Amino acid sequence: MKQSLPVSTPELSAYQVLLRPIKESDLALLRGWRNSDFVREKMVTTSLISEEQQYAWFKKICHDHTQMHWLIEYRGKPIGATNVKVPVTGETVNTATTLEPGLYIGEPKYQGNILAFAPTLALYDYCFKYMKVDKFRAAVKSTNVAALKYNQQLGYQISSRDDFIHLCLQKEAYERQTVTLKSFLSRLRKS
Amino acid sequence: MDNQQKLVQSFVQALGVEEGQVTDQLTYNTIKEWDSTAHMILISEIENTFDVMLDTDDIIDMSTVAKAKEILANYDISF
Q1: Would you call B43 and A184 a contact, using CB atoms and an 8 Å cutoff?
Q2: Residues 6 or more apart in contact with residue A64 via CB below 8 angstroms
Q3: Is B78 a member of any domain?
């Protein structure tokens, strides 16, 4: 059965960061980040995640073709996590033309830093170039001004508002809007 | 204008803040004027002022005025 096959999540490297598939050994670190006040208060589900809940989630995502999850590394150290999910029933990440992204930077030093754009640029470049994706959509809490600004800097446009602000990103807008960001985050290292 | 004054003016120009706000302790993302958009403008301003090209790690690490001086020192700019 197709859905029982393990998800093949590619490793992505660009803009100084490495996105690698989440491993079971990452779970304690991820849970600590996910349960921190800084990350949790911005999530749709703000409750604390238990070890058992997280393990069940991990077992599910390993075989769930409607989502892909990565750990983000910078200078060889983990700094956060990102993912994409399919918003439309019946699609997989490999067939969907629209995806919903998720991201948090768990390492406090880089929260709100320009580096927080790097994993998203790496991920979107990959999705637009190598997958069938031509659009991303996102929903942020209306109180989360930082996330709204972050998404708008990537080229997202507001499509509607209720308890959440719903946003949409077309490939052309993304490419137009991120030229400067990409140029700052893709310079060569001195050593 | 010495390097200290040039750096302060770079922050004033890029962030639109008063000179008095530009202390060594001024930190990225702690004032609304220094967000990620302003950070890119600031980097451009500093690069033009001091005729340097920072690498990406420096751009990421430049989180305070003091850190900016420390990074620029690596490009032979003294304060």
Answers
A1: yes
A2: A3, A7
A3: no
Q: Does B1 touch chain A (CB under 8 A)?
A: no
A12-183 CATH fold: Aminopeptidase (3.40.630)
Q: How do the domains of chain A map onto residue ranges?
A: 12-183
Chain A residues in contact with B46 (beta carbon < 8 A): none
Cα(A12)–Cα(A114) distance, integer angstroms = 19
Locate the chain A residue with the closest alpha carbon to B36: A114
Digit-coded pLDDT (tens) for A1-20: 445 688 899 999 999 999 99
CB contact under 8 A, B29 and A153: no
**What is the β-pairing status of strands A135-141 and A98-105?**
parallel
CATH number, domain at B23? Answer: 1.10.1200.10
Query: Does residue B13 form part of some domain?
Result: yes
- For chain A, 191 residues long, the average pLDDT of each consecutive 10-residue run is 74 97 97 93 88 97 96 97 94 96 94 95 98 96 91 96 95 96 88 60
Domain hosting B23: range is: 3-73
| Tens digits of residue pLDDT in B63-74 | 999 999 999 999
Number of domains in chain B: 1
